[in-house]
Amino acid sequence: MQEAQEKQGKSLFLKGAVIGAAAGGAATLLNKNTRRKMGRNLRSAKGTIAETTSTIKENPRETKDEVMAKAKNAASVLKEAANSVQQIYDRTNDELKEEVSNVKQDSEMAVQSAKEIKQDSEKALHTVNETKEELKSAGNKAKEAKSELTT
Fold first, then answer.
1. For residue 123, what are the CA distances in angstroms to 39, 127, 129?
2. DSSP 8-class letter at 30
């Protein structure tokens, strides 16, 4: 059922696209300058098509060989472009891998430094707390000594 709905939707889309194209084409032909330009372009295209057809009829083998040579040349150029793109990708990928590795190492060193700072801070806090307790104890002994002297 869903397949039938998809086919119907595609059919409606195609009909809409054809109607839209026809309406758009008709609307553009309302303009006199557009009609003239289109007429010139069609005459030019007709001449080019006629010339090409004549060349193919007169020299089919040469035309075929020429088209094949152009296709091979285009394929060669595309292959070179693909190789260049691959080389750029490989080089960039290698550079990115190295940069990511460096960032990872720097991050690991920063984390290690943070852990060391935390440990040092904890030791310092422990020392401060011990010193505080010792000072309290010394203060209590001083109070005792004072009370011994005053009694």
1. 91, 6, 10
2. T
Please classify residue 38 by burial: count the beta carbons closer than 10 Å to its beta carbon, then call 0-12 exposed, 13-18 middle and 19+ buried: middle
Backbone angles phi, psi at 72, to 5 degrees: -65, -40
CA distance 130 to 149: 29
3-class DSSP assignment, residue 138? helix
Element (H, E) at 22: helix 2-28
Distance in angstroms (rounded) separating the CA atoms of residues 48 and 64: 18
Torsion of CA 106, 108, 109, 111, to 10 degrees: 120
Amino acid 82 reads A
In order of 43, 91, 108, 110, the CA distances from 99 in angstroms are 60, 12, 14, 16
Categorize the per-residue pLDDT at 135 as very low, low, confident or very high, splitting at 50, 70 and 90.
Answer: very high
pTM (two decimals) = 0.39
- State both tokens at 46: 């007709």
Long-range contacts of 51-56 (CB under 8 A, 24+ apart): none
pLDDT tens digits, one per residue of 16-68:
787 877 877 777 777 888 878 888 888 888 888 888 888 888 888 888 898 89
